[in-house]
Write a structure and sequence with these properties.
The chain is of the alpha/beta class. The chain has seven helices and nine strands, in the order αβαββαβαβαβαβββα. Helix 3 packs across helix 4.
Length: 197
């Protein structure tokens, strides 16, 4: 599947039930990237849609990685008609500085990323971000994955798949525990129609 995608024999690919670790490793190797940059299209139970990233546990750990993800997702937000505002989340409220060194680092990193990208640092207030942001940047990939899983599996939300933004081809990642891949197939089809890559 990956060889067919990268050679242009197919227009898009959806991971489906294939092993995440194995498939994504091959995708990275054959695409020539050391890390994937994925964002997931999420929908809340009350039908608010937004992109969230990073969602891979090994993604979005450095400031350059966060900035790169924001730069790549902005055109996607425009093409989908989403809000262009980017919310940068951190590990606490803005007035939580001094409570723990990890919180301080998270607040400082988020503030810097927001300043360098024109985003808005909202601390930990994701509930505000969903009202006016097309993209919500989690503090790191573990947090992004937890937000994704909480919304999808506990909050009656929906995932429409997670496109990789840095391989120049349409590859939509999915969660194996979600048995319905129709949303991911629709997202891949929309990306083809929008000529995203």
């Amino acid at each position: 599947m990956i060889s067919d995608l990268l050679s242009g024999r197919i227009d898009a690919a959806v991971r489906g039930t294939l092993s995440s670790n194995h498939t994504l490793r091959i995708l990275k190797e054959q695409s020539g990237v050391s890390k994937l940059e994925r964002v997931v299209l999420l929908e809340t139970a009350d039908s608010r849609r937004f992109f969230l990233g990073p969602v891979g546990i090994d993604e979005g750990w450095t400031i350059p990685e966060k900035i790169s993800l924001i730069e790549k997702v902005r055109p996607l937000c425009r093409k989908f008609g989403f809000f262009e505002k980017v919310t940068v989340l951190s590990g606490g409220r803005l007035d939580d500085a001094g409570r723990h060194p990890a919180v301080d680092r998270s607040l400082a990193d988020a503030e810097l990323v927001a300043r360098l990208t024109g985003g808005v640092h909202r601390g930990i207030l994701i509930e505000e971000a969903v009202n006016d942001s097309g993209f919500i940047l989690a503090p790191d990939g573990i947090t992004g994955n937890l937000i994704f899983r909480t919304l999808l599996f506990l909050g009656n939300g929906h995932s429409h798949g997670a496109p990789a933004l840095n391989i120049g081809k349409i590859f939509v990642d999915t969660s194996r525990v979600n048995p319905d891949y129709l949303n991911a197939l629709n997202l891949a089809d929309n990306l083809i129609e929008l000529s995203f890559f």
